[in-house]
Design a protein that fits this description.
- Strand 3 and strand 4 form a beta hairpin.
- The longest helix has about 60 residues.
- The protein is an alpha+beta fold.
- It has a 5-stranded antiparallel beta sheet with strand order 1-2-3-4-5, covered by helices on one side.
Length: about 160
Amino acid sequence: MTTPANRRGSALVIAVALLALASALLAGASASAHAANRAEETLEALHAADAECRVVLAESVVGWRAADDSLAPGASSVRAVAARQNGFGGWPVRSSVRVLRLDSLRYVLAVSSEVGPASSPRARRRTSVILARRAMADTTLPILSPVPVRHWSAAELF
């Protein structure tokens, strides 16, 4: 037979067990919310890196430099692009551009972008395109910038 003292002791044990269960559920919900927030920030950083990579690639093709034309075949040049703030988090985005001259008419333009602090970037994106200059017989015409080669325009060479 159970006495009132035994019932009070078991109620206390049940109450402590329910408190432990509630705290475990709260800790799990907090960890889940933190993981979802981190995943959202990482996804945003990936989109920011991809967008910055495309912008720097387009700026490099449009603003082709004469120094890149003077590279010898097989030589390359690397330059850093000024860091920009991008995305909702306002993370710094750093990019670098590498130009490799393949032969007299073809180049590889490679861009690498990183989002987040320099010590631990949240996202990286690298892309490259092969550019070709049109061969011109008339030297009196203005020199045109190289254009992407259609067959290899999305090659991952860098």
